[in-house]
Amino acid sequence: MTCSSFAIEGIATLKMISLPKSSIIQAAVKAVPRGNLLSVSLPTISTPSKITVEQPAKKLTSFSLSQNLVRTVPSVSTSLSGTTQVRFAHTDLKVPDFSAYRRDQVKKADSQSGQSDAERKLTSYLVVGAGAVACVYSAKAIVRGIVSNLSFAADALAISKVEIKLGDIPEGRNVTITWRGKPLFVKHRTEEEIATEAAVDISQLRDPQPDSERASNPKYLILIGVCTHLGCVPIAEAGDFSGGYFCPCHGSHYDGSGRIRKGPAPLNLEVPHYEYLDDTTVVVG
């Protein structure tokens, strides 16, 4: 069998096959022309090109990072401390309505809130004012309760007052009464002693004080018999000044009004609080 006859038979065989050929058969089969063997070429098979996969770009800039942001409303939300919520539609998001808390004056869209500003604030001012008054009265009651607990009892205050009958004291004499554990000097002064003490120049005194301030009734002088130096009890009708007082502990001399005139004492003898019930009766304390 010659080459030409082989070619003719191959062509005839191809023509007799009427079935459809696949792409691989079509690529492998090639019609062989007439001629010698040199003109016959080997079948060629096409190889598919290499598939390249695009590598994702590295997100190193703000623009690349912004491309991955969520641009839609989340459909599902969940957390560790809460339950999972699924959003099915945009109409299930409720817009908050504070109409129940708004004043009636500002619910109208055609009215300005400044016109009713004073009227709306009046209620707030009244509430704050009433609260402030209640707080003041409560604080007053608390303070009074604390002060009353810290102050002296009524029976102690009753004992702390002493009533003195001045008519029983002879003129020119000094009596000593115990009052609150301290000696109390009460002296019925003569007219000469009153005039002498009133004529003293108070600018020359260590503790300047006129006699009229120390004795509301010039006839009677009431003093606490405690020296202002170290607390000794002075001696009445003694010292360098007539009708005065002398402290034997450190030599302080007081005049007939109880004012310091010589010695280490810095202040005058203390005058207690007293009230006259009448011309001859006084209550000390």
TrEMBL record:
Co-factor requirement: [2Fe-2S] cluster
Keyword Transmembrane: yes
Rieske domain: residues covered: 214-283
A Gene Ontology cellular-component term: membrane
Keywords, alphabetical: 2Fe-2S, Disulfide bond, Iron, Iron-sulfur, Membrane, Metal-binding, Transmembrane, Transmembrane helix
Pfam families noted in UniProt: Rieske (PF00355), Ubiq-Cytc-red_N (PF09165), UCR_TM (PF02921)
Domain of life: Eukaryota
Topology with respect to the bilayer: Single-pass membrane protein
NADP recorded as keyword: no
Gene3D superfamilies from the UniProt entry: Rieske [2Fe-2S] iron-sulphur domain (2.102.10.10), Ubiquinol cytochrome reductase, transmembrane domain (1.20.5.270)
Location of the protein in the cell: Membrane
GO molecular function, one term: 2 iron, 2 sulfur cluster binding
PANTHER family, sorted: CYTOCHROME B-C1 COMPLEX SUBUNIT RIESKE, MITOCHONDRIAL
Family: Belongs to the Rieske iron-sulfur protein family.
Protein name: Cytochrome b-c1 complex subunit Rieske, mitochondrial-like
Species lineage: Eukaryota, Metazoa, Spiralia, Lophotrochozoa, Mollusca
